[in-house]
Amino acid sequence: MKIFVCIKQVPDTETKIKVDASGKAMDPAGVKWILNPYDEYAVEEAIKTRDANPGSQVIVLTVGPKTRAGEALRTALAMGADEGILVDAPDQLELLFVAEAAAAAIKKAGPADLIFTGKLAIDDGAGCVPQMVAEFLGIPHATVVSKFQLTPEGAQIERDVEGGTKEIVKLKLPALIAATKGLNMPRYASLPGIMKAKKKVLQEMTLTDLGVTAQSLTPTIKFELPPDKPPAMLLSGDPAEQVRALVSKLRDEAKVL
What we know:
The protein is α/β, with parallel strands linked by helices. The chain folds into two domains: 2-206, HUPs (Rossmann fold, 3-Layer(aba) Sandwich), CATH 3.40.50.620; 227-257, no CATH class. It contains six helices and eleven strands. The chain has a nine-stranded mixed sheet with strand order 9-8-7-10-6-1-4-5-11, with helices on both faces. The longest helix is centred in the first third of the chain and has 16 residues, at 37-52. It starts with a strand and ends in a 5-residue tail after the last helix.
């Protein structure tokens, strides 16, 4: 089996985000970049599937700036993936063209028997690229997948739906599976794995190579950070006085009573 995993490099959740001078993008200075956490589940499931099916291969793929996006690929390679593909693209590339580029790269390096992705990237939270990749490839897909199993007919998955219930879906291969938390427990990249990753194949492509003509479909007007939270207000006095003060502030200042 040829198994592809689409991944993305995103800012660490602990990174202090700043808006750049233009007011239309994030300032990359001082940002710590990591492999998207949901993509870690996708990489882990791909490796488990490969190991259970001798002769299979895991290829990780990312679309992003050549100057830094390769670090996410190296992380996935250190976890155990076999090869990597880096599609050099602008940082703020429209998601439609990210999906088109990923699908074109899979077609070029494929054919794919199975594709894993994370359910969404934690930076933009759009959650639409997996579905668009599947559409470009003309294959079935399932999102928010918390359980995966290969069957003689293809694959059977369990996905989370609203209300805390589960939905069981059967898919014919090739198919795209978008992973969520609970699908597995991603492994850490070991020191031997990190050393081996340096020697693994990392192929580079460009949007031109893939015939993708990117353009701006949704212009950014302005980015701004949410306002700072006001300091906490402490009420003094005995309980009865505190209650009267609280009611007064809710009625006269907050205007919620």
